[in-house]
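Deliverable D2.4 — example input (structure tokens):
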């Protein structure tokens, strides 16, 4: 079938390919701007498409024909492989070129109608007998499908590779000795390694369920997405699929942090593949993975979702993707950690953290928990025994810690603190110590708040749910408004009165005359023992309350002393004010001298007319007194 003169090969000169033959070329084919100077006969004997074009182009004129092949799969390089096959030059099939050769042979219609053992038949045989039966070859073949995905889909190349990989993942790899084990098929039925057919006794290491994560991570995003969907339809566990997606995301999204490889099997597999990572659009990857993620719950999975959400806010994904992540995290918010919720604000917002995102996740959690939003606040015993109380309490504790962490942001508004705290129902907090601590930190970071704003924030705290230590701290907290401090003292005193009343009731019960002795069973005796132990516990608690009451009395006494001191200071200030407004002080200030009144003069005359020995002795003292009083 070859033209006259043996063809030894092809040579390239610039942008032209020439055949090393004695005959001059009579047809020129152009593929992706590259000219191939060839001969009609070998092409027409193998390629149905070129034969039809040449038959239609034949006319009265003779000469070199110019044919342009548009959208040739694989470009000029793969066309050269097909041309070499037409000239009976050996063509080697490998996992890296089989897809392109398959598509090129189909494009050129190199079927059995145009020659026995044509290229399409050979490519199909190699693909079905070698490629889809080997894990590594399937991965390599899929990686070369990206430029020709439409053509490969038409030939069902991609679907066959995906189905083959799914079957292999479902099967124990130690049963087949696939190339990723680095031992090929040299394996005995017992699982030991063979050398020249001899049992060496060495055992193949057990392959874990995630052995395939690294291998499929070299696929592009569209092919990876289709592989996950195929595996899901095959019935592979959602935990394994989620693990593969987490591995893929950690590899191509640096914001998720470092991932640990750790397994020697994966390292050997990657070394044998010698593949380069796929070129991935991070935004497209994230939006695609979010659609594929199964509905799972767990601490590690929740942390992964929080990392995805952080990267999604950086990349600016669409609203649907962001809302899906927030909903998934909200449904398992009780498994989240504080550092995972501290998502920085990457937008033009003045705040340091993305508090709106956290608030939406809280609402998703409330809506996902049945009976929380509509049920009224139960008693403390009902909260303790309710099945849904543990997740709700964990979320309440987490939210209080989150508010305390973001409260130091000077740009955070009081309304946001209030909305975060009120997003959870009242029954979620058995104690309000965490909420009080968060608001106290906010007051410390925002000293310019008015008393009205502080009182509005303090209204979200139920002071009856504060512990003794929190009440003691609040009663001495200078950052709280005075009205709030008085409210704390009132509730603290009310609690003490209630406790003392209970203590007195216990004492009265103990001092009451004993009831007539009756024969009781073991159950009644056990009940009496439990009741007596309960009274002992109550008495001990009452003793502690008495100590707290004494402290409160001493505190009240100190406040009374301070109040008396303030009253004395006020009296001194009043006296000094009356003295400064007197006529004598004004006259002294001006420099005038006031004359003594007539009554005083007559008294002096009477005293001088009738001197007595005592008066004569005291006269100098009285004269000094008059002398000093004359200064006014």
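Example output (designed residues):
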């Amino acid at each position: 079938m070859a033209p006259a003169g043996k063809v030894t090969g092809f040579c390239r000169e610039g942008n032209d390919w020439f055949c090393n033959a004695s005959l001059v070329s009579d047809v020129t084919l152009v593929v992706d701007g590259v000219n191939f100077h060839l001969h009609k006969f070998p092409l027409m004997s193998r390629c149905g498409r070129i034969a039809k074009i040449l038959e239609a182009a034949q006319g009265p004129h003779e000469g070199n024909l110019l044919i342009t092949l548009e959208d040739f799969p694989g470009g000029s390089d793969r066309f050269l492989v097909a041309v070499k096959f037409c000239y009976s030059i050996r063509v080697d099939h490998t996992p890296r070129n089989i897809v392109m050769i398959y598509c090129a042979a189909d494009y050129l219609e190199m079927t059995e109608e145009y020659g026995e053992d044509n290229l399409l038949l050979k490519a199909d045989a190699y693909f079905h007998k070698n490629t889809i039966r080997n894990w590594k070859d399937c991965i390599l073949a899929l990686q070369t499908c990206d430029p020709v995905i439409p053509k490969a889909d038409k030939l069902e190349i991609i679907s066959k590779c995906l189905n083959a990989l799914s079957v292999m993942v479902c099967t124990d790899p130690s049963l087949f000795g696939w190339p990723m084990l680095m031992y090929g098929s040299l394996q005995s039925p017992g699982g030991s390694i063979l050398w020249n057919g001899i049992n060496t006794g060495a055992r193949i290491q057990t392959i874990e369920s995630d052995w395939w994560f690294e291998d499929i991570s070299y696929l592009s995003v569209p092919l990876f997405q289709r592989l996950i969907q195929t595996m899901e339809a095959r019935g592979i566990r959602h935990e394994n699929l989620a693990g593969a997606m987490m591995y893929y995301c950690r590899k191509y999204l640096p914001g998720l942090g470092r991932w640990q490889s750790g397994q020697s099997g994966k390292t050997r597999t990657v070394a044998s593949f010698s593949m380069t990572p796929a070129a991935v659009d991070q935004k497209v990857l994230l939006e695609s993975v979010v659609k594929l993620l199964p509905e799972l719950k767990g601490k590690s999975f929740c942390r992964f979702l929080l990392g995805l959400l952080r990267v999604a806010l950086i990349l600016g994904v669409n609203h649907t993707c962001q809302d899906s992540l927030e909903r998934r995290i909200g449904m398992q918010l009780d498994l989240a950690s504080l550092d995972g919720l501290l998502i920085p604000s990457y937008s033009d917002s003045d705040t340091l953290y993305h508090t709106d995102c956290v608030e939406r996740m809280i609402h998703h959690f409330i809506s996902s928990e049945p009976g929380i939003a509509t049920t009224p606040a139960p008693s403390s015993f009902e909260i303790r025994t309710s099945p849904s109380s543990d997740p709700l309490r964990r979320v309440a504790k987490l939210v209080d810690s989150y508010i305390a962490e973001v409260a130091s942001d000077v740009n955070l508004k009081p309304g946001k603190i209030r909305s975060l705290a009120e997003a959870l129902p009242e029954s979620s907090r058995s104690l309000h110590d965490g909420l009080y601590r968060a608001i106290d930190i906010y007051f410390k970071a925002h000293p310019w708040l008015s008393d009205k704003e502080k009182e509005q924030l303090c209204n979200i705290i139920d002071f009856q749910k504060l512990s003794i230590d929190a009440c003691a701290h609040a009663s001495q907290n200078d950052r709280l408004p005075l009205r709030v401090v008085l409210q704390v003292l009132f509730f603290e005193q009310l609690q003490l009165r209630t406790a003392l009343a209970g203590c007195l009731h216990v004492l009265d019960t103990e001092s009451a005359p004993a009831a007539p002795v009756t024969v009781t069973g073991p159950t009644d005796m056990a009940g009496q023992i439990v009741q007596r132990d309960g009274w002992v516990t109550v008495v001990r608690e009452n003793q502690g309350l008495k100590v707290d009451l004494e402290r409160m009395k001493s505190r009240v006494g100190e406040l009374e002393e301070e109040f008396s001191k303030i009253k004395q200071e006020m009296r001194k200030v009043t006296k000094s004010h009356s003295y400064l407004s007197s006529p004598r002080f004004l006259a002294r200030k001006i420099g005038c001298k006031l004359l003594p009144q007539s009554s005083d003069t007559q008294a002096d005359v009477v005293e001088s007319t009738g001197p007595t020995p005592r008066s004569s002795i005291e006269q100098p003292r009285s004269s000094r007194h008059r002398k000093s009083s004359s200064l006014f």
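The longest strand covers residues 198-203.
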